[in-house]
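TL;DR need structure tokens for one chain.
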Amino acid sequence: MPLKEYRAKRRFNSTPEPRPTRSGRAKAKMATLPSAKRFVVQKHAASHLHFDFRLEMNGVLKSWAVPKGIPLRAGTKKLAIHVEDHPVAYLNFQGTIPQGEYGGGKVEIWDKGTYRLLEKTPISYKITLAGKKLKGNYVLFKFKDKNWLLFKMKANS
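>> reply
TL;DR here they are.
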């Protein structure tokens, strides 16, 4: 069942978060070409302020929590902790998850746009982001269990 972990962590009668469809492939409204891959970065004031970095892949949002913020300068690296996949409808989610619920706190969209996958290996994704704030080449590199590094590459990389 797609998004099993996402469903297990939430009580949809108590949280405003999107409930996935049976297939898990709920569609989000966003003016873009159907083939475009989308991303969103949400600022999440939960028990600890962090940013949620999400990439649309295979009908879900692959997701990472980035505790120290998204790197804006080339060469800057940030820890990104892989978390459960989220439904595509989460691309447009912002609001307040009630305290006491999983991830309780305010969620706001910090940036969103499209991305292009340049290279994918079992331990890395090289992407180009085209958002309002985030532009350019980034790499997600897995180094241990759920721990990844997110870093911005130099323009000529």
